[in-house]
Amino acid sequence: SQDAAHDLETMKKYKVTHVLNVAYGVQNAFLDDFIYKTISILDLPETDIISYFPECFEFIEKAKIQDGVVLVHCNAGVSRAAAVVIGFLMNSERLSFARAFSLVKNARPVACPNPGFMEQLHKYQ
């Protein structure tokens, strides 16, 4: 969530190095401390979330190559960020939607992509 992304102590505690901001209108807080990528995605069922995946996944993969830790956040940490992480797990780890969703839900119990994103993720697998 944007709250996590604006909590420097927690981000340092979890050794975050990179921040993927998929919120709309949320500023990046600590430009000198982390590597940021901002991709403004609207949290609407009709938003084509899949079209944003290549740019999101490239940023996450580059961070992984550098042994980085990525925080993916939106406003509430419920829909957009969850959808991006689910898609990333499906793509990079070749997980089914059900398995990827379960992993994200265990890590972030409030995760619940909007109905349009859920439908797109089902078709993505």
TrEMBL record:
Q: Which GO terms describe its cellular component?
A: cytoplasm
Q: Does the keyword Acetylation apply?
A: yes
Give every Tyrosine-protein phosphatase domain span: 1-125
Question: What's the Enzyme Commission number for this chain?
Answer: 3.1.3.16, 3.1.3.48
- Write out the entry's keywords from A to Z: Acetylation, Hydrolase, Protein phosphatase
- The main enzyme category here is hydrolase
Query: Do you know which InterPro entries this protein is assigned to?
Result: Dual-sp_phosphatase_cat-dom (IPR000340), Prot-tyrosine_phosphatase-like (IPR029021), Tyr_Pase_dom (IPR000387), TYR_PHOSPHATASE_DUAL_dom (IPR020422)
Which residues belong to any copy of the Tyrosine specific protein phosphatases domain?
Answer: 57-109
Q: Which GO terms describe its molecular function?
A: JUN kinase phosphatase activity; protein serine/threonine phosphatase activity; protein tyrosine phosphatase activity
According to the record, the signal peptide region is: none
| Gene3D superfamilies, per database record | Protein tyrosine phosphatase superfamily (3.90.190.10)
Q: Which reaction does it catalyse?
A: O-phospho-L-seryl-[protein] + H2O = L-seryl-[protein] + phosphate; O-phospho-L-threonyl-[protein] + H2O = L-threonyl-[protein] + phosphate; O-phospho-L-tyrosyl-[protein] + H2O = L-tyrosyl-[protein] + phosphate
Q: Does the keyword Calcium apply?
A: no
Q: What Pfam families does this protein's entry cite?
A: DSPc
Spell out the SMART domains in the cross-references: DSPc
What this chain does, per the entry, is described as: Has a dual specificity toward Ser/Thr and Tyr-containing proteins.
Which family is this sequence assigned to? Belongs to the protein-tyrosine phosphatase family. Non-receptor class dual specificity subfamily.
* Protein name per the record: Dual specificity protein phosphatase 19
